[in-house]
Amino acid sequence: MPRLPEVHRADVTDEKILFFYDRLFGPDKDPAVDHGTIHATPGDWWTVFANDPDVFGHAVRGFALYRGATVDPLLRELGQGRAGFARGSQFVFSQHCKQMRSLGMPEEKIAAIPAWQVSDLFTPLERAVLAYTDGLVLDGGRVPDGVFEVLREHLPPAEILQLTYITAMYDMHATMCKALRLEFDDVPERIAEVEIPDDVQVADLSADLAGE
């Protein structure tokens, strides 16, 4: 379950939040108890963000901003989907795979996103968008000049800025979903010490490696 409490419908006083509760869950449901949005997601992103109406409102305005951007929606979604994969957020990756599909991206291209570097399915601009996304998410904004030059060849400055902002915004959402264990990122930590059976005698590993 999420690491922060979910806000019950009865405790919501902000009209913006109630609007989205009604629209996404239905007017007769308490989404903090009766989970499930019209998009087939658990929906606890909404009920957890409702803990602070200002944060909720700012996040929702961000969604409105990116949907009004002029950059090609398929390029936008390619960046968002790759950001989710690179950050390790199943929720962000899964949702934007669906969005790419709805915009007409072929299944084989969606399936190739995790290993885009060795795929020949993407155009030079799409490869640049994927490389740019990796630079933003995996390299903390270090983007090689060659990658940026391809973007500049194909996109006007306003659309490069939009792509940068939207991709970075979804890197943030992916990070927050993992940290707060929201939606499909509500999973336990998988990196832990592997227990050795009690009947196995443990040798000095460092001595073995040193050849002693």
UniProtKB/TrEMBL annotation:
Q: Where is the Carboxymuconolactone decarboxylase-like domain?
A: 63-134
Which N-terminal stretch is annotated as signal sequence? Answer: none
Check the record and name the Pfam families matching this protein: CMD
Which parts of the chain span the membrane according to its record?
A: none
The name this protein carries in UniProt is Carboxymuconolactone decarboxylase family protein
Q: Which organism is it from?
A: Gordonia prachuapensis
